[in-house]
Amino acid sequence: MADEDAPHANGNGHEENGHVPEIELIIKASTIDGRRKGACLFCQEYFMDLYLLAELKTISLKVTTVDMQKPPPDFRSNFDANPPPILIDNGMAVLENEKIERHIMKNVPGGYNLFVQDKEVATLIENLYSKLKLMLLKKDDVSINSLLSHLRKINLHLEKKNTRFLTGDTMCCFDCELMPRLQHIRVAGKYFMDFQMPTDLRYLWRYMLHMYQLDAFTQSCPADQDIVNHYKQQQNVKMKKHEELETPTFTTSIPVELDLQQDE
Fold first, then answer.
1. Nearest to 32 by CA among 189, 203, 227, 250
2. Contact 151, 201 (CB under 8 A)
3. Which of 24, 57, 153, 167 has its CA 20 to 30 A from that of 244?
4. CLIC N-terminal domain location, by residue (predicted)?
């Protein structure tokens, strides 16, 4: 297992006003090098949630990667067959995604504020990822148009809301859920199908620009190569030798023809 650097998130566990609890998040490592961050959507989602709380100094965050292709003996003995993400709080391991989410909301200092209630947004971002997977499987116009239609609905919501994030001008759990999925759509869609989000989705691009400027996203984001390899494995496509030697790249720019400065 390897510790991931989390600038601004790792502290000494104490602040002037008293003890700050240390939360450890175990995430899947890269399937390419077995050490850096892997392309697990849930791992990145909870990494972002906890990073935001660490920035607010309500917790001290430690992130550990584990190579699930060769898990170390202590991982197997402690967690059996349970895959990451795994949250450890005061020696207690929290397994399963729904339980981790509930634990952050109810037991982690500041977590309650991240989990806003908004049925409209919850419905809006639901099933987006399944449409990406269907598009990569079918590779036909129907699945492409279904994904595009969903992205246009999100763009329309952002236009009407006219805020930096999905529910307002501060991030919440829905942003930590949506943005990793948008990144997978962008990177995997481009690689496998030359799919690109249309530039007329101006408010969606503005949203992504805001996210690309935040440490919570950039520090938790897997490399492009890891996102691509995630889907290669699903399609039983073997990784080529040279891919292990590639310098990791991160797509965090927006199309040059989009001038969003006037929208700031």
1. 227
2. yes
3. 24
4. 21-104
Pair of tokens at residue 210: 């805001």
Q: Exposure pattern of 122-147 as b/e (b: 16+ CB <10 Å)?
A: eebbeebbebbebbbeeeeeebbebb
CA–CA distance, 48 with 40 (Å, rounded to integer): 12
Question: What single letter denotes the amino acid at residue 203?
Answer: Y
Task: Specify whether the CB–CB gap between 225 and 247 falls below 8 A.
Answer: no
- Which residue blocks in the chain are alpha helix, DSSP H? 41-55, 73-79, 97-107, 111-114, 119-125, 128-138, 141-161, 173-193, 202-212, 215-218, 224-234
More confident residue, 80 or 51: 51
**Residue 214 pLDDT exceeds 70:** yes
Residue pair 65/27 in contact by the 8 Å Cβ criterion: yes
* Burial class of 92 by CB neighbour count within 10 A (0 to 12, 13 to 18, 19+): exposed
- 10 Å Cβ neighbour count for 257? 6
Q: How many CB atoms lie within 10 A of CB 41?
A: 18
d(CA 135, CA 194) in angstroms, rounded, equals 12
Residue 38 makes CB contacts below 8 A (sequence gap 6+) with 27, 28, 29, 30, 31, 65, 68, 222, 226, 230
The answer to whether 222 and 34 have CB atoms below 8 angstroms apart is no
Peptide bond before 21: cis, by omega within 30 degrees of 0?
no
Give the C-alpha separation, 259 to 25, whole Å: 37
